[in-house]
Fold:
Amino acid sequence: MNLEFFAMFPKGTVYQSDKFEPRGSRIISLPLKKKILYHLVSKLGAGVVAFMVISFLFTVWPVVKEELNYDLDLEKTKSLGQPDYTALADAEKVIQIQKEANFYGVNSYFSIVIPKINATANIIANVDAGNRREYVEALSNGVAHAKGTYFPGQGKNIFLFSHSTDSPLNVARYNAVFFLLRKLEAGDKIIVYFADRRYEYEVVEKRITNPKDTSALTTETSEESLILMTCDPPGTTWRRLLIVAKPVRT
Structure:
């Protein structure tokens, strides 16, 4: 008997043959317990994969949607242009600015609107950029204004950020507002509402920096600048994208 022939098959496997089978054929059958285990493992694996795919799509969908809308020119924020409130009395001017902010879906206390990229958000003032717990909470509700920097109309640096993501899974929660910030170019307009007043800025610079470079946050300037910061690429902490804008003189 050739023992090498039987050594080719797994130990414990049952081989059956009868007179109706072609010579040399074999039917391999696993024990019932192993069959059940195999089916459980295969179903569980498929379920885990499906869950991961669905979770990923659900998590990043907000930013994917914004990217698609931008590329397809859909759902762009309508711009009201440069309203002329100079002829209005102060009380009437405040009412009109409040209505305009409401048109964009933000408040007139402190908020930002970037029509080109459909970015609108309320701004949380005086957030400590060095306190993770504090800025994570702030960025869950809008864009953060860095504590120690100035406010619109004060003639100094205004620093706004939305940059707490350390994983692609966190993009939708913390980074969606500024996700398309990289689309901005020189000349694009940014509107900031502060204390029932409207301030318009024009982009003059876009640059990438090292995450340890804090010069944009600490450097004093002789004229007012609006600085927006986010992570680059979105969902990482590898680099920082900075947008610098100057007031539009009217």
Notes: Residues 231 and 240 are 5 Å apart (CA to CA).
